[in-house]
Amino acid sequence: MKIRRVALARFRLALREPLVTAAGRIGEREGVLVRLYGSAGALGAGEATPIAGFEMERVDESWETLVALAPRLVGEDVRDLEAILDGVETSAPQAPCARSALDAALHDAAARIEGRTVAAWLAVRRGRRARRSVRVNALLGARDPERLAAAAARAVAEGFETLKLKVSGSCIEDDVERVRAVRRTAGRRARLRLDANGGWKEEEARDALARLAPFEIELVEQPVDANDLAALARLRAESAVRVAADESAAGLSRAARVITLRAADAICIKLGACGGIRPALQLAEHAAAAGIGVFVTSGLDGAIARAAALQLAAALPGPLPACGLATGDLLRDDLAACPGPVRGALVLPRATGLGVSPAAAALARIGVGPEVEFEAGGA
Ligand SMILES: [Mg+2]
């Protein structure tokens, strides 16, 4: 099944409400949509929506990388996925998010040809079955305790078992009050996950986690600076709260260091940071061999990248903590209509490939600048 045409389009996704993290305020997301076509029509799609703080390239660099690589894909057969991905990895070592878009589009195409979902396509090759659904966490974005409690109540009523909130953006006392409000509303059975986005100094993290541990925290993502693996490892060893590496594990070589140093109890996988589904599976296997679990999260991506992350999560073996993939509702508009979570889980779409295709009308609303196409014969 040969690729006859590659189309690239830039887009901009506005958030319904800006999300405030320790790293700053996120009001909109910009990305690049990749679509592969064969002689009979659409083959597959992928998305690069890089997010700051995770060792990804900037969106202009994603675009430049994809413009450079797209002509080389024309004429390739998607069944040669492994060889094509080898070439992509060699050609664009500094652009993991652009690589993840091509990786997703190629997996989408390869799985569609076999009439399977990407998750089933991946799982079958490893002698296992894919999950039919993936448990996801609710992300509670509000700052003040009252609004947080109201959001927690809604999430629990909708069936979410894991609630995540951002911490470290203000003083520890504020975080204690916010976590207290969520725990009081959510009840004892809810899992509470925190994400500090590297906003605490080591001593602050130690103090904060000691004060937050009585609220029975499931885990804390990135309590300290991404580059301070020694501090992360010390907190892992000392703290009553389990520690997950997110920004510290952005990129395969960084994730490998986290694993070697046993610096975290779990690693948070973002496709755009590690370069796609294929390297993400390798990372998950490497982590599992060291007794470190993984979960998959979106970097506030559009529908196509979230679909790829969902397919990856569904293909992972063993126990899987709730994944951070229920972020579609945070966006005002999207690349495709995508079913949201039901009772705290995302059900895999029945359609083959990624299970979601970009809606032609979406680009008319959220596209930025002209589309660029590359075709056989040189376009
Ligand atoms: Mg995080």
Protein traits:
alpha/beta, TIM Barrel, Enolase-like, domain 1, binds magnesium ion, 39% helix, 379 residues
Q: Can you describe this structure?
A:
With 379 residues, the protein is α/β, with parallel strands linked by helices. The protein is 39% helix and 22% strand. The chain is built from 13 helices and 13 strands. Strands 5-6-7-8-9-10-11 form a seven-stranded parallel β-sheet. A four-stranded antiparallel β-sheet has the order 3-2-1-13, with helices on both faces. Strand 1 and strand 2 (24-38) form a beta hairpin. The longest helix is centred in the N-terminal third of the chain and has 18 residues, at 96-113. The protein starts with a strand and ends with a strand. Residues 195, 197, 221-222, 246, 268 line the site of magnesium ion (MG).
Draw up the topology in text.
Elements: E1 5-21, E2 24-38, E3 41-48, H1 59-73, H2 81-91, H3 96-113, H4 118-125, E4 133-135, E5 138-140, H5 145-157, E6 162-166, H6 172-186, E7 191-195, H7 202-212, E8 217-221, H8 229-238, E9 243-245, H9 252-260, E10 266-269, H10 271-274, H11 277-289, E11 293-296, H12 303-315, E12 345-347, H13 360-366, E13 367-375
Parallel strand pairs: 5-6, 6-7, 7-8, 8-9, 9-10, 10-11
Antiparallel strand pairs: 1-2, 1-13, 2-3, 4-12
The structure holds magnesium ion.
Residues 195, 197, 221-222, 246, 268 line the site of magnesium ion.
